[in-house]
Predict the structure.
Amino acid sequence: MSLRKKLLAGNWKMHKTAAEGASLAADIAAAIGKETAVDVVLCPPFTALDSVGRALEGQAIKLGAQNLHPEKFGAFTGEVSAEMLRALFVTHVILGHSERRGLFGELDEFINRKVLVALANQLKPILCVGETLAEREAGKTLAVVQQHLEVGLKGVTEEQITTVIVAYEPVWAVGTGKVATPAQAQEVHAFVRGILTQHYGAARAQKVRVIYGGSMKPANAGELLAQPDIDGGLIGGASLEARTFVDLVNAAAAAQ
Ligand code: 13P
């Protein structure tokens, strides 16, 4: 039995209308019931947050967003603030996803501002870190992860750190069908916990969930989730279908 409750989060990315999202959320909730052996979070696009939130009313499943803007309000066309998310009963927010970094040019300093604003608004950040294939082949995996983590968490206090979730998502495994081996993932997860220990002490570092993302499927989840420092999953493709996602939740519960 791990110290840490496993967490399974579905990152729907740019999939599902408001109506489709509500229907998927209702199907997942019906299958999971009030299951509390693991924490489950659904992260639909902004436009489906309201309908999915309604479908999850009274359920144990939590609602997450995929991004936020660090300013409170203002002339930021196309952006959404932490307060706007809170008003929709959002509890978690994915920050620094590799698609935000790679396709939208987000840098560590900007991601760090978002992490601090999320925490100040009682939103739990799911901070994504991870190397590209070129960085892995150049032997830079741990250096890249360290930079994402240390800059991303700058200014996060000892009280706040245990509400942060770190997601290790090797970019070469995201949406490619190429999953990290359990040993590859465990090495990085243990490294992440080591850095958290240096900055926040062992007792706090032991409480932080470090989850894995990148082509996680029911077929490979068991082995990954059995690793001592893998505390759950951030699921893309396999979160878009109720049956597969529920199988993953069950795999996480079995590994708990
Ligand atoms: P896939 O599960 O589709 O590889 O996506 C992982 C991911 O990016 C989750 O945030």
Observations:
- Residues 11, 97, 169, 174-175, 213-216, 234-238 surround 1,3-dihydroxyacetonephosphate (CB under 6 Å).
